[in-house]
Amino acid sequence: EAQVTQNPRYLITVTGKKLTVTCSQNMNHEYMSWYRQDPGLGLRQIYYSMNVEVTDKGDVPEGYKVSRKEKRNFPLILESPSPNQTSLYFCASRLPGQGRAFFGQGTRLTVV
Amino acid sequence: AQSVTQPDIHITVSEGASLELRCNYSYGATPYLFWYVQSPGQGLQLLLKYFSGDTLVQGIKGFEAEFKRSQSSFNLRKPSVHWSDAAEYFCAVGARAGGFKTIFGAGTRLFVKA
Lengths: 112, 114
Known about the structure:
Strand content of chain B: over 45%
Structural class of chain B: mainly beta
Oligomer: heterodimer
Order of helices and strands of chain B: EEEEEEEEEEEE
Number of helices of chain B: 0
Distance between the termini of chain A: 36 Å
Helix content of chain A: under 10%
Structural class of chain A: mainly beta
Radius of gyration of chain A: 13 Å
Distance between the termini of chain B: 41 Å
Radius of gyration of chain B: 14 Å
Number of strands of chain A: 11
Shape of chain A: globular
């Protein structure tokens, strides 16, 4: 089954404690992306990757890092989480030129 | 600047009534256009998309949307709403010429009255 898998689905952490949210897709997609969803703001793009070792900033990259060492994986790293990064995070992937993105189920992160 | 506007934060309709959710975009050229639906606690599911051709596109669950270039709009419609349609709906635009720049609207939450 074609899917994008994020882990964990829920996470509560404390300010400053480094964390990683994993994202994996089994569709051999070149493009992968991370979004955060906040009430009234919709989804905002954090980072995206057009292929292995090719990443670029989206609209709200501050406080986040990503890496793309393998085609299937695109982890999101918060080196020093802060409460304003409490949000719902989505990973997505797609093929070039296809337009339509496939989304993971989301990771609800709370930073206290 | 590129943007997507969904003017209605929330809409309430009666079950069986018709529905129209509005979406306006600002983009340098004709982009790809999408509508996604998000049920509570779920990820986003694609309802329909417009790439080119017929400006009236049909999607899943009985939804359709019409692209109007002159109005920069891509409104979502359904002739008869079901209680299971209660969810949040997102309009999105994406670049045609490569890249992964997809811009989402803020969303419209649909409530359905019995």
